[in-house]
Protein backbone atom coordinates (compact mmCIF):
# COMPACT_ATOMS: atom_id res chain seq x y z
CA UNK A 1 0.00 0.00 0.00
CA UNK A 2 1.25 3.55 -0.69
CA UNK A 3 0.42 7.07 0.42
CA UNK A 4 0.83 10.33 -1.45
CA UNK A 5 3.21 13.00 -0.18
CA UNK A 6 2.43 16.74 -0.50
CA UNK A 7 4.88 16.96 -3.45
CA UNK A 8 2.91 14.32 -5.36
CA UNK A 9 5.36 11.45 -4.92
CA UNK A 10 4.24 8.10 -3.60
CA UNK A 11 5.92 6.22 -0.77
CA UNK A 12 5.38 2.55 -0.04
CA UNK A 13 3.90 1.82 3.37
CA UNK A 14 4.99 -1.66 4.41
CA UNK A 15 2.40 -3.63 6.45
CA UNK A 16 4.98 -4.53 9.06
CA UNK A 17 5.71 -0.85 9.66
CA UNK A 18 2.01 -0.04 9.94
CA UNK A 19 1.52 -2.89 12.40
CA UNK A 20 4.34 -1.52 14.53
CA UNK A 21 2.79 1.95 14.65
CA UNK A 22 -0.52 0.49 15.74
CA UNK A 23 1.16 -1.40 18.55
CA UNK A 24 1.94 0.01 21.99
CA UNK A 25 5.53 0.62 20.91
CA UNK A 26 4.60 3.95 19.36
CA UNK A 27 3.07 5.34 22.57
CA UNK A 28 6.47 6.19 24.04
CA UNK A 29 6.26 9.63 22.39
CA UNK A 30 2.98 10.55 24.09
CA UNK A 31 2.68 12.16 27.50
CA UNK A 32 -0.73 12.59 29.08
CA UNK A 33 -1.86 14.17 32.31
CA UNK A 34 -2.51 11.81 35.24
CA UNK A 35 -5.92 10.19 35.00
CA UNK A 36 -6.41 11.02 31.32
CA UNK A 37 -6.18 8.34 28.68
CA UNK A 38 -6.37 8.49 24.92
CA UNK A 39 -9.02 5.76 25.08
CA UNK A 40 -11.54 8.47 25.90
CA UNK A 41 -11.15 9.78 22.37
CA UNK A 42 -11.80 6.34 20.94
CA UNK A 43 -15.43 6.51 22.01
CA UNK A 44 -16.22 9.36 19.64
CA UNK A 45 -13.75 8.30 16.99
CA UNK A 46 -15.20 4.83 16.57
CA UNK A 47 -18.81 5.44 17.56
CA UNK A 48 -21.45 4.30 15.08
CA UNK A 49 -22.16 7.25 12.82
CA UNK A 50 -24.91 7.96 10.31
CA UNK A 51 -23.43 7.81 6.82
CA UNK A 52 -26.56 9.61 5.61
CA UNK A 53 -25.42 12.81 7.33
CA UNK A 54 -22.65 15.24 6.59
CA UNK A 55 -22.00 17.71 9.35
CA UNK A 56 -20.87 21.19 8.38
CA UNK A 57 -20.62 24.86 9.26
CA UNK A 58 -21.82 28.00 7.51
CA UNK A 59 -20.11 31.20 8.65
CA UNK A 60 -21.62 34.59 7.79
CA UNK A 61 -18.65 36.95 7.71
CA UNK A 62 -20.92 40.02 7.72
CA UNK A 63 -21.94 39.10 11.27
CA UNK A 64 -18.44 38.19 12.50
CA UNK A 65 -17.07 41.19 14.40
CA UNK A 66 -13.33 41.74 14.19
CA UNK A 67 -13.03 42.34 17.94
CA UNK A 68 -15.05 39.24 18.87
CA UNK A 69 -13.21 36.05 19.74
CA UNK A 70 -16.01 34.24 21.57
CA UNK A 71 -15.67 31.20 19.29
CA UNK A 72 -11.94 30.92 19.99
CA UNK A 73 -12.40 31.28 23.74
CA UNK A 74 -15.17 28.69 23.77
CA UNK A 75 -13.01 26.21 21.85
CA UNK A 76 -10.13 26.70 24.30
CA UNK A 77 -12.39 26.14 27.28
CA UNK A 78 -14.26 23.17 25.82
CA UNK A 79 -11.23 21.30 24.56
CA UNK A 80 -8.58 22.37 27.06
CA UNK A 81 -5.94 23.78 24.73
CA UNK A 82 -5.64 27.20 26.33
CA UNK A 83 -2.00 28.09 26.85
CA UNK A 84 0.23 31.12 27.11
CA UNK A 85 2.54 33.03 24.78
CA UNK A 86 4.10 31.14 21.89
CA UNK A 87 2.55 27.83 22.97
CA UNK A 88 -0.95 29.22 22.47
CA UNK A 89 -0.17 30.97 19.20
CA UNK A 90 1.03 27.66 17.78
CA UNK A 91 -2.33 25.97 18.41
CA UNK A 92 -4.51 25.92 15.30
CA UNK A 93 -7.83 24.43 16.46
CA UNK A 94 -9.53 27.71 15.54
CA UNK A 95 -8.20 31.21 14.89
CA UNK A 96 -9.56 34.56 13.74
CA UNK A 97 -8.15 36.03 10.54
CA UNK A 98 -8.80 39.32 8.75
CA UNK A 99 -9.04 39.37 4.96
CA UNK A 100 -8.58 42.61 3.02
CA UNK A 101 -9.63 43.12 -0.58
CA UNK A 102 -6.71 44.89 -2.21
CA UNK A 103 -8.92 46.44 -4.87
CA UNK A 104 -11.63 47.87 -2.61
CA UNK A 105 -10.04 47.92 0.84
CA UNK A 106 -13.02 45.99 2.25
CA UNK A 107 -12.07 43.87 5.27
CA UNK A 108 -13.74 40.74 6.59
CA UNK A 109 -13.06 38.98 9.85
CA UNK A 110 -13.69 35.26 10.12
CA UNK A 111 -12.75 32.15 12.06
CA UNK A 112 -10.68 29.45 10.35
CA UNK A 113 -10.47 25.88 11.55
CA UNK A 114 -10.25 22.39 10.05
CA UNK A 115 -12.49 22.57 6.98
CA UNK A 116 -13.56 18.90 7.28
CA UNK A 117 -13.00 18.27 3.59
CA UNK A 118 -14.81 15.62 1.61
CA UNK A 119 -11.41 14.70 0.14
CA UNK A 120 -9.03 15.62 3.00
CA UNK A 121 -5.35 15.87 2.01
CA UNK A 122 -4.37 15.14 5.61
CA UNK A 123 -5.96 11.70 5.34
CA UNK A 124 -4.28 11.00 2.01
CA UNK A 125 -0.75 11.52 3.34
CA UNK A 126 -1.07 9.92 6.79
CA UNK A 127 1.14 6.77 6.88
CA UNK A 128 -0.63 5.15 9.84
CA UNK A 129 -4.29 5.95 9.26
CA UNK A 130 -4.32 8.23 12.32
CA UNK A 131 -5.91 10.98 10.22
CA UNK A 132 -9.28 9.76 9.08
CA UNK A 133 -12.73 10.93 8.03
CA UNK A 134 -15.84 9.55 9.68
CA UNK A 135 -18.80 8.50 7.56
CA UNK A 136 -20.60 11.69 8.64
CA UNK A 137 -17.81 13.89 7.27
CA UNK A 138 -15.99 14.82 10.49
CA UNK A 139 -12.20 14.62 10.07
CA UNK A 140 -10.28 13.50 13.17
CA UNK A 141 -6.88 12.39 14.43
CA UNK A 142 -6.67 9.09 16.31
CA UNK A 143 -4.07 9.79 19.00
CA UNK A 144 -3.47 6.06 19.45
CA UNK A 145 -1.86 5.76 16.04
CA UNK A 146 -0.50 9.28 15.45
CA UNK A 147 3.32 9.14 15.42
CA UNK A 148 3.83 12.88 15.09
CA UNK A 149 5.33 12.74 11.59
CA UNK A 150 3.46 15.96 10.71
CA UNK A 151 2.82 15.01 7.08
CA UNK A 152 -0.81 16.04 7.62
CA UNK A 153 0.28 19.50 8.75
CA UNK A 154 2.29 19.96 5.57
CA UNK A 155 -0.59 18.71 3.42
CA UNK A 156 -3.30 20.89 4.99
CA UNK A 157 -3.76 24.03 2.85
CA UNK A 158 -5.57 25.81 5.71
CA UNK A 159 -2.91 25.56 8.45
CA UNK A 160 -5.59 23.94 10.57
CA UNK A 161 -3.45 21.47 12.50
CA UNK A 162 -0.77 21.87 15.12
CA UNK A 163 1.82 19.71 16.82
CA UNK A 164 1.93 19.29 20.59
CA UNK A 165 5.56 20.03 21.48
CA UNK A 166 5.32 20.37 25.24
CA UNK A 167 3.63 18.49 28.08
CA UNK A 168 -0.04 19.50 28.19
CA UNK A 169 -2.23 20.62 31.06
CA UNK A 170 -5.95 21.32 31.50
CA UNK A 171 -6.78 18.00 29.90
CA UNK A 172 -10.39 17.17 29.14
CA UNK A 173 -11.43 13.52 29.24
CA UNK A 174 -13.55 14.01 26.11
CA UNK A 175 -10.67 15.67 24.20
CA UNK A 176 -7.35 14.26 25.45
CA UNK A 177 -4.18 15.77 24.02
CA UNK A 178 -0.88 13.96 23.76
CA UNK A 179 2.63 15.40 23.58
CA UNK A 180 4.18 14.28 20.31
CA UNK A 181 0.87 14.11 18.42
CA UNK A 182 -0.99 16.32 15.96
CA UNK A 183 -4.36 17.89 16.74
CA UNK A 184 -7.02 20.10 15.24
CA UNK A 185 -10.72 21.01 15.28
CA UNK A 186 -13.00 18.02 15.88
CA UNK A 187 -16.27 19.96 15.42
CA UNK A 188 -16.69 19.08 19.11
CA UNK A 189 -17.44 15.51 18.06
CA UNK A 190 -18.27 14.54 21.65
CA UNK A 191 -21.08 17.10 21.63
CA UNK A 192 -22.31 16.14 18.17
CA UNK A 193 -22.47 12.46 19.09
CA UNK A 194 -24.60 13.45 22.09
CA UNK A 195 -27.00 15.44 19.91
CA UNK A 196 -25.46 18.85 20.59
CA UNK A 197 -23.64 21.53 18.62
CA UNK A 198 -19.99 22.66 18.63
CA UNK A 199 -18.92 25.00 21.44
CA UNK A 200 -17.91 27.73 18.97
CA UNK A 201 -21.40 27.83 17.45
CA UNK A 202 -23.04 27.93 20.87
CA UNK A 203 -20.78 30.79 21.99
CA UNK A 204 -21.38 32.77 18.79
CA UNK A 205 -25.14 32.45 19.29
CA UNK A 206 -24.82 33.61 22.91
CA UNK A 207 -23.16 36.86 21.80
CA UNK A 208 -26.18 37.64 19.62
CA UNK A 209 -24.07 37.77 16.45
CA UNK A 210 -25.37 34.48 15.04
CA UNK A 211 -22.53 34.26 12.53
CA UNK A 212 -22.21 30.46 12.69
CA UNK A 213 -24.73 27.80 11.70
CA UNK A 214 -24.10 24.09 12.27
CA UNK A 215 -26.06 21.23 10.83
CA UNK A 216 -26.50 18.41 8.36
CA UNK A 217 -25.54 19.52 4.87
CA UNK A 218 -27.43 16.61 3.34
CA UNK A 219 -30.75 17.38 5.04
CA UNK A 220 -32.70 19.81 2.81
CA UNK A 221 -34.88 20.78 5.76
CA UNK A 222 -31.93 21.83 7.96
CA UNK A 223 -31.20 25.52 8.47
CA UNK A 224 -27.71 25.23 7.06
CA UNK A 225 -28.88 23.48 3.87
CA UNK A 226 -31.64 26.03 3.35
CA UNK A 227 -29.29 28.98 3.76
CA UNK A 228 -26.75 27.46 1.40
CA UNK A 229 -29.49 26.97 -1.18
CA UNK A 230 -30.77 30.54 -0.78
CA UNK A 231 -27.56 32.56 -0.54
CA UNK A 232 -24.21 32.33 -2.36
CA UNK A 233 -21.30 30.98 -0.37
CA UNK A 234 -17.65 30.20 -0.96
CA UNK A 235 -15.18 27.55 0.11
CA UNK A 236 -11.60 28.33 1.02
CA UNK A 237 -9.22 27.29 -1.76
CA UNK A 238 -11.93 26.20 -4.22
CA UNK A 239 -9.17 25.54 -6.76
CA UNK A 240 -8.22 22.41 -4.81
CA UNK A 241 -11.68 20.83 -5.27
CA UNK A 242 -11.77 19.47 -1.69
CA UNK A 243 -15.48 20.20 -1.11
CA UNK A 244 -15.01 21.33 2.51
CA UNK A 245 -17.79 21.03 5.08
CA UNK A 246 -17.15 24.62 6.18
CA UNK A 247 -18.56 27.36 3.96
CA UNK A 248 -18.36 31.16 4.17
CA UNK A 249 -21.00 33.69 3.13
CA UNK A 250 -21.73 37.39 3.45
CA UNK A 251 -25.49 37.50 3.76
Description of the structure:
This protein has 251 residues and is of the alpha+beta class. It has one domain: Alpha-Beta Plaits, CATH 3.30.70.20. Helices cover 25% and strands 19% of the residues. The chain has nine helices and eleven strands. It has helices at residues 15-21, 39-46, 70-79, 85-89, 121-125, 151-155, 189-193, 199-207, 223-230, and strands spanning 2-4, 10-12, 55-60, 94-100, 107-113, 131-133, 139-141, 161-163, 182-184, 212-216, 246-249. The strands form five sheets. A three-stranded mixed β-sheet has the order 10-3-11. Strands 1-2 form a two-stranded antiparallel ribbon. Helix 3 (70-79) runs antiparallel to helix 8 (199-207). It is globular. It starts with a strand and ends with a strand.
Describe the largest sheet: 3 strands, mixed
Helix content: 10-25%
Mean pLDDT: 83
Total E-strand runs:
11
Assign the CATH topology.
Answer: Alpha-Beta Plaits
Count of all domains:
1
Strand order of the largest sheet: 10-3-11
Distance between the termini: 46 Å
Overall geometric form: globular
Helices and strands, in order, run as EEHHEHHEEHEEHEEHHEHE
User: Segments where pLDDT lies below 50 for 5+ residues?
Assistant: 1-46
Give the number of helices: 9
Q: What fraction strand?
A: 15-25%
Amino acid sequence: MSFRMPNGSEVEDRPTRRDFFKSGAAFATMTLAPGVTLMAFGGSATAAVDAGKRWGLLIDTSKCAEDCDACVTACKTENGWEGHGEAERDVQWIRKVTLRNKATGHESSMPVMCQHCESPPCVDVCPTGASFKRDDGIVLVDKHTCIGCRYCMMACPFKARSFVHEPVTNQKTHAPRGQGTVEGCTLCVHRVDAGGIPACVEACSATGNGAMVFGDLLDPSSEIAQRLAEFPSVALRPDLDLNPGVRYAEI
